Amino acid sequence: MRIEYDRETCIGMFQCVDEWDAFVKNLDDGKADLEGAEEVDEQLFVREVPEDAEFDAKFAARVCPVDAITVYDDDGEQLVP
């Protein structure tokens, strides 16, 4: 499973930070950061989700008020949102 995070879309509500510890507050920018992610395009970050964190990653995506977080299964099918 992988997660994509569009940091440009983020509005800094930090709900994802409360749901998965891979997201951290960046108060200087007023946005969340996704630790361990690789920037694959400008402000688009991707990382693999460990099996033990799949539930938390999905929930972080579900609570994002602007749909800046998308979760995909191993076959590339979008799971959330």
Automatic annotation (TrEMBL):
It holds the Pfam family Fer4_15. The keyword Metal-binding applies. One of its GO terms (molecular function) is metal ion binding. Keywords: Electron transport, Iron, Iron-sulfur, Metal-binding, Transport. The keyword Metal-binding applies. This is Ferredoxin. It comes from Halogranum amylolyticum.
